[in-house]
TrEMBL record:
Name of the protein described by the UniProt record: Putative membrane protein
Entries under PANTHER family matching the protein: ENDOSOMAL/LYSOSOMAL POTASSIUM CHANNEL TMEM175 (PTHR31462), ENDOSOMAL_LYSOSOMAL PROTON CHANNEL TMEM175 (PTHR31462:SF5)
UniProt subcellular location: Membrane
Family stated for the protein in its record: Belongs to the TMEM175 family.
Source species taxonomy: Bacteria, Pseudomonadati, Bacteroidota, Cytophagia, Cytophagales
Alphabetized UniProt keyword annotations: Ion channel, Ion transport, Membrane, Potassium, Potassium channel, Potassium transport, Transmembrane, Transmembrane helix, Transport
Amino acid sequence: MTTSRLEAFSDGVLAIIITIMVLELKLPHGDHFEDLKGLIPTLISYLLSFIYVGLYWNNHHHLWQIAERVNGKILWANLHLLFWLSLFPFATGWMGEHHDSTAPVAMYGLVLFMASLAWYLLAQQVIRQEGPTSKVALAFNKDYKTKASLLIYASAMAISFFEPRISQVIYALLAALWIIPDKRIERMV
């Protein structure tokens, strides 16, 4: 089976996730710029999640540019990734409204961790399908960036039980790290 249907389906799901996130944003109760102050944490959470969904969309696109085919295991691994990404609107909204609280910030970190783990598992499944000398295997050789991210997400979740704001900064810094294009994949595309 080719990758086009999987990519099209995933693009649609990611578009819906972003749409849900923006529809969850509440309008200010007044008509002055000062009325936006109370929404700043929610807007920052939205921006961070928008960046994360964009990062997954971008990396997902690159993956399917170098993969040649999919099988049932890859379809399920992709659905596993989409499941965790579909929780972004929930985690974003909860953290946006309760940005100083442990549970929402830890939950946001859990969603980030599980999405990253699902991404890693998807890539590994594609490597198994394509073979050890494939473009995908060469591009994802050792994948230190994803493995380090998993460790950092887990650490940030633990930190959220003591200082949620530090965890939020870590989540933002990790997103900034992923904005830098992965040269291994870009060379293969």
